[in-house]
């Protein structure tokens, strides 16, 4: 769906998505990194389980919610990718390890 | 001098003279002017770097990106440089989730209490005044199938290009209307995207209404630029006009765009559909802060009520830039400067005479910058059928998956406005808090009732306007008001009641 322009400069960062190792460019948001890697489904909805991917890339639609390093409900489009980040598809509503959803 | 970067919540001071929310052209100018007048200023923006929507990513952009995006984009550097040379504090990646007046203790000045999240921790701080420069967002574009992965806004593709050097690959269709549509199409084509078609949904009748303002438009900066963009897009891709209906189809993800236009229906195979039908003010923070707003029929949206100094109905809150009604990038920067001067005057750093003297040339430039806006508003007002879905299966509230059919079917229960609808169907109760369905729900109800949208009203928006995790709140300092606020949140994590109604 997206490809990286050859003149885009940035050090490589490695991260995983649902366990698969992927590469990003330093400074990417998690959403940009996933799109660049060909990922289109970021979450499934709590209501019908439908697949969703990022829509606005600017923090307003909340369609890009993923789980990052075990914490759910993170907006991928507002979070900068970091070396070693563990990103996962968010299935339905997120809950925290404490059991409180926020 | 140079700005002080605030990287963690604990680096925030207890108090500032002025809070500016949003580091787009409006917020950057407001903060720079106010700081230059001697106010202590905190500028918060949830993005990682300054620039807002138009100048997004510019401080990190390569020469190639700047060349690709043109001189309007590069113009942002001057605004940012001016701000960075002031003594203001700048918090990047900081979300402001509440603003409310606080009750001053005896002898204390009145002011505002502000909830900010930064680097995983939340803080409540106090400021004497605030300027909301939260900008705009792309208007909801509810067509059947618009929730499928593979459908994004045209602005989101521009963000991916500006910040990550990403361009659409595969079969791409761009659909909609608005002054930015052809700019975005031209930018993406220029960057090498394979745009298979631009589906222009501008209603035919708009042209006639816009003509009344065409003289101003022809003399404005938009006139020439618009004509050039149009020619550019036409040269490289197919443009489909006279569009009556638009639909996205696919199993689990987008596979085709179905366009009905005068002459027939066509199914365009597509990997990516980019939707855009203009931008509307980002209302949530101003509404949650209690600022009055009204229906603006020309822009088909609610806009906050502000005076010539950007002052809202709430004494210590001003609104500048697109957040107060769409005025474009150049207009927003000038508007922000006026708001900055007004803040300096209200806080005793500028005399009234000095304020007026400085404002006069800015107002003259603002009038110039706004020339042609009426034409754009009339020409690109999206058609009723693209704002108010007619097909019952069209999803209106994406978060709670509430369809247009369900909303219409609920009307006979005596629903008068969006808040009642919310109680029945949960529309607007998901994490986006109505940002992607508020206008649509209002307009459907207005259509069903046969009254103006202004009479129907908008969702009551409450703080926090962004979900704040309990973990973040736990990091709050334990002042009396903090405990009060936290106690409110702990009971109802997502929809805590407005601090003013807690009394
Ligand atoms: C996606 C998109 C792309 C656009 N591209 C162009 C373009 O290429 N050319 C053009 O002329 N115009 C463009 N526009 C129009 C643009 O909105 C204006 O021209 C201009 O950017 C308005 O300036 P502003 O300062 O009012 O707001 P903006 O530039 O929108 O800045 C608002 C800032 O506020 C921040 N913010 C909002 N709420 C909060 C909060 N609660 N806490 C912290 N920060 C917050 C946002 O992150 C944003 O950075 C675009 C608009 C959108 C929505
Ligand atoms: S893509 Fe819309 S909030 Fe992230």
Biggest sheet statistics of chain B: 8 strands, mixed
Q: In oligomeric terms, what are we looking at?
A: heterodimer
The CATH topology of the largest domain in chain B is FAD/NAD(P)-binding domain
Count of DSSP H/I helices of chain A: 1
Unique ligands: flavin-adenine dinucleotide, FE2/S2 (inorganic) cluster
The CATH class name of chain A reads Alpha Beta
**Structural class of chain A, please?**
mainly beta
Largest sheet of chain A: 7 strands, mixed
Number of domains of chain A: 1
Percentage of residues in strands of chain B = 15-25%
Largest interface: A-B, 47 and 53 residues
* SSE pattern of chain A: EEEHEEEEE
Number of domains of chain B: 3
Could you say which overall geometry of chain A the principal axes of the C-alpha atoms support? Answer: globular
Helical percentage of chain A:
under 10%
Instruction: Provide mean pLDDT of chain A, rounded.
Output: 91
Q: What are the SSEs and their pairings?
A:
The complex is a heterodimer of chains A (102) and B (503).
Chain A: E1 2-4, E2 12-17, E3 20-25, H1 30-36, E4 43-44, E5 51-52, E6 65-68, E7 71-75, E8 86-91
Parallel strand pairs in A: 2-8, 4-8
Antiparallel strand pairs in A: 2-3, 4-5, 6-7, 6-8
Chain B: E1 4-5, E2 15-21, H1 25-36, E3 41-45, H2 63-69, H3 71-74, H4 76-84, E4 89-92, E5 94-102, E6 111-118, E7 121-132, E8 136-138, E9 151-153, H5 154-164, E10 166-168, E11 172-177, H6 179-190, E12 195-200, H7 206-211, H8 214-219, H9 221-236, E13 238-240, E14 243-249, E15 256-261, E16 264-269, E17 272-277, E18 279-281, H10 284-288, E19 293-296, E20 301-304, E21 317-319, H11 328-346, H12 352-370, H13 373-379, H14 384-387, E22 395-397, E23 402-403, H15 404-410, H16 418-425, H17 438-449, H18 453-456, H19 470-474, H20 480-491
Helix pairs in contact in B: 1-4, 1-11, 5-6, 6-9, 11-12
The structure holds flavin-adenine dinucleotide (FAD) and FE2/S2 (inorganic) cluster.
Flavin-adenine dinucleotide (FAD) is lined by residues 21-27, 44-47, 52-54, 95-96, 133-138, 155, 158, 180, 183, 279, 282, 285, 321-323, 328-329, 332 of chain B.
């Amino acid at each position: 769906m997206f490809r990286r322009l050859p003149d885009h400069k940035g050090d490589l960062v490695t991260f995983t998505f649902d366990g698969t190792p992927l590469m990003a460019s330093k400074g990417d948001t998690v959403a940009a990194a996933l799109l660049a890697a060909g990922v289109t489904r970021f979450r499934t909805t709590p209501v019908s389980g439908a697949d969703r991917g990022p829509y606005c890339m600017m923090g307003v639609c909340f369609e890009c919610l993923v789980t990052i390093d075990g914490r759910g409900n993170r907006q991928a489009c507002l979070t900068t990718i970091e070396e070693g980040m563990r990103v996962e598809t968010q299935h339905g509503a997120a809950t925290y390890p404490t059991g409180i959803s926020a | 001098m140079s700005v002080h970067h605030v990287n963690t919540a604990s680096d925030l001071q207890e108090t500032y003279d002025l809070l500016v929310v949003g580091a787009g052209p409006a917020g950057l100018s407001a903060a720079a002017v106010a700081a230059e007048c001697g106010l202590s200023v905190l500028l918060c923006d949830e993005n990682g770097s300054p620039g807002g929507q138009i100048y997004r990513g510019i401080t990190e952009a390569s020469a190639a990106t700047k060349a690709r995006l043109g001189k309007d984009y590069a113009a942002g550097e001057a605004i940012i440089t001016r701000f960075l040379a002031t003594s203001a504090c700048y918090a990047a990646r900081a979300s402001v989730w509440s603003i409310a007046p606080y009750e001053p203790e005896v002898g204390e000045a009145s002011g505002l209490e502000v909830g900010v999240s930064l680097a995983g921790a939340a803080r409540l701080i106090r400021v004497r005044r605030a300027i909301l420069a939260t900008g705009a967002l792309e208007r909801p574009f509810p067509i059947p199938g618009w929730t499928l992965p593979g459908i994004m806004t045209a602005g989101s593709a521009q963000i991916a290009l500006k910040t990550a050097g990403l361009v659409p690959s595969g079969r791409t269709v761009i659909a909609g209307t608005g002054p930015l549509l052809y700019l975005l199409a031209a930018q993406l084509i220029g960057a090498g995207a394979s745009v298979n078609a631009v589906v222009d949904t501008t209603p035919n009748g708009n042209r006639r209404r816009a003509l009344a303002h065409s003289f101003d438009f022809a003399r404005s900066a938009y006139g020439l630029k618009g004509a050039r963009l149009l020619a550019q897009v036409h040269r490289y891709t197919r443009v489909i006009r006279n569009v009556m209906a638009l639909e996205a189809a696919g199993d689990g993800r987008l596979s085709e765009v179905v366009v009905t236009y005068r002459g027939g229906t066509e199914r365009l195979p597509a990997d990516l559909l980019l939707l855009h039908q203009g931008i509307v003010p980002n209302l949530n923070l101003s509404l949650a802060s209690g600022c009055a707003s009204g229906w603006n029929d020309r822009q088909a949206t609610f806009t906050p009520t502000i005076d010539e100094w950007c002052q809202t109905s709430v004494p210590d809150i001003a609104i500048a830039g697109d957040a107060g009604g769409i005025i474009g990038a150049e207009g927003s920067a000038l508007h922000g400067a006026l708001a900055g001067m007004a803040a300096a005057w209200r806080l005793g750093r500028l005399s009234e005479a000095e304020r007026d003297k400085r404002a006069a040339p800015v107002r003259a430039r603002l009038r110039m910058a706004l020339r042609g806006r009426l034409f754009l508003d009339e020409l690109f007002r999206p058609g009723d059928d693209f704002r108010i879905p007619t097909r019952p299966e069209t999803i209106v509230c994406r978060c709670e998956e509430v369809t247009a059919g369900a909303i219409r079917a609920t009307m006979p229960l005596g629903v008068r406005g969006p808040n009642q609808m919310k109680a029945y169907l949960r529309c607007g109760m998901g994490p986006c808090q109505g940002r992607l369905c508020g206008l649509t729900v209002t307009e459907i109800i207005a259509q069903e009732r046969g009254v103006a949208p202004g009479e129907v009203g908008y969702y009551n928006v409450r703080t926090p306007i962004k979900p704040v995790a309990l973990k973040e709140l736990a990091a709050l300092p334990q002042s009396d008001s903090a405990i009060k606020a936290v106690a409110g949140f702990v009971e109802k994590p997502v929809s805590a009641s407005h601090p003013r109604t807690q009394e």
